[in-house]
Amino acid sequence: MNTRILQILGVIVFAVSVFAMWYFWDRQEYHLRVAAGQSSGQAFKLMKAAQSITNRHFPEIKIDVFETRGSLQNARLLDRGRVDLATARSDMVLGNRAQLVAELYSDVFQLVVRRTSHIAHVADLRGKRIALPPERSGAHESFWFLAQHYGLTKSDVQAYSGTDATTSWLFMNGDVDALFRVRAPGDASIDKLIRDADGAVIAIPQAHALQFKRPALEAGSIPVGSYKGWPTVPSKDIETVAVKRLLLARKDLPDAVVAKLTSVLFQRRRELIDEVPLAGNIMVPDRSSGTFLPLHSGAEAFYDRNQPSFLQENAEPIALLVSVFVVLMSALYQLNAQRRRRFLDAYNQELLELAQKARTARSFRTIDECHTQLSEFVQRIVAAAGAGRINSHEFNLFNFTYEAVEDAIRDRELQLERKGIRAKGRTARLSAQAKRKAITAARGGAEKPPDQGESA
Fold first, then answer.
1. Helices (H), 268-314
2. Which regions of 2-90 does DSSP assign to beta strands (E)?
3. I want to staple 183 with a disulfide (CB 3.0 to 4.6 A). Which of 52, 54, 187, 255 is the partner?
4. Between β-strands 98-114 and 129-132, what pairing exists: parallel, antiparallel or unpaired?
């Protein structure tokens, strides 16, 4: 009874421990740092919106959004473990610790020129003044990659680098002829330059040629009317170069946390769009053709949440295999039970025949033979029990038959003694006490059956 109570208590303690671990793990707080580029950029605004919505629906996740120079710095901070998440362009060198969460939107190369600068093509920048994003930023590096493709060197242009505020001031003040940024179409800072400083966006063709050097680049466009509906600006689709803006996570960030963040991007998209309309462009990475980065397992778990599990997908064949296995096991059990039953029936039949032989015995010689056969039979039963051919229950059933046969031999022996037919010097018989010890040995294995030659 005490053992039973201890077992029940052990199960209860185990169940409570598992529940406590789940409860506290599910409510563990996480403080995440996000590198999101310049505060005037769309990526920063999108991450700030995601911060407030995540805190609203998952209060255990605390997010801090940091301003940086841009994608290149974001990627470096993530690779060094200084931040947990980062926004970055897909054409940047992103390190070994970065894994993909989602595609946020597509940025495009935008070259804004003053209408009086007579700049119509990228090559026309030679000898001109241009405002660029901060040095050591991804956009700054992208301009010089573009310039090299068009045969321009640093000595061919007069470049000024700075933040969005600085470069916008230079353009508005007439201190530069052009300005380069990598932003989504309709960007507010570029819209202001077009409206207030008589700026215009010019085409950047040859995207497919640039793709040979950087496969992550794509052909893109700035749609007609992106900056003004009437008069239309631009008046037609502007050909340019596009690149995807990604949300990245450190690969050691817990899957459960990344899955919750991913759910905010897709299941709370309406709330995100209310704050940042660009959130409507968030997309699931196309895994059918492969991705430039490995997908974080937490994000993958969210994307595959509606996919059937292995058991669900293979339910029918698994059920068939289980059914066949159960039938086979049942058949084997039945065959084994029949074999054991036949084995036990054969022993019982032999004992019954021995009892019949004892009842019809006419001399003590026959009685002695019955005792000897019974002793040998006991030894065979003990050996069968040791070999596992009969179990303890079957051995107990055999014991009833054995005792009946033993009584039959003893009764016939007494009958012959009363008739005075007992022969002198007959062979010693196995005593009943010795035979009972043999049965006890077969049950417990503590004693050995007596030898046949033991004296009665």
1. 269-275, 297-303, 310-313
2. 30-35, 61-66, 85-89
3. 187
4. unpaired
Residue 444: what pLDDT?
56
Host H or E run for residue 424: none
SS (H, E, C) 320-359: HHHHHHHHHHHHHHHHHHHHHHHHHHHHHHHHHHHHHHHH
346/394 Cα distance (integer angstroms): 13
Q: Tell me how far apart the terminal alpha carbons of the chain are, to the nearest angstrom.
A: 45
Q: Which two tokens stand for residue 61?
A: 């996740």
Residues 418-444: pLDDT tens digits? 876 544 434 444 444 555 555 665 555
Amino acid at position 35, single letter: A
The H or E element containing residue 132 is: strand 129-132
Q: How many residues in the chain?
A: 456
Are the beta carbons of 40 and 164 closer than 8 angstroms?
Answer: yes
**Cis peptide leading into residue 285 (ω within 30°):** no
Please, are residues 455 and 428 in contact by the beta-carbon 8 Å criterion? yes
Chain-centre distance of CA 62, in angstroms? Answer: 24
What is the rounded distance in angstroms from the CA atom of residue 101 to the CA atom of residue 420? 104
Q: Going by C-beta distance under 8 Å and a sequence separation of 6 or more, which residues neighbour residue 59? A: none
Tokens (6 digits) for 375:
């002793």
Q: How far apart are CA 445 and CA 440, in angstroms?
A: 8
- Average pLDDT of the residues in 105-112: 96
Residue among 210, 71, 216, 215 nearest 146 (CA): 210
Global pTM? Answer: 0.64
Q: DSSP letter string over 176-239?
A: -SEEEEEE-TT-HHHHHHHHHS-EEEE----HHHHHHH-TT-EEEEE-TTSSBTTTTBSSSPEE
Three-state DSSP class for 64? strand
CA-based nearest residue to 134, from 111, 157, 167: 167
Measured between alpha carbons, how far is residue 66 from residues 62, 73, 168, 247 in Å? 13, 11, 22, 14
Tokens of 65: 């959004």
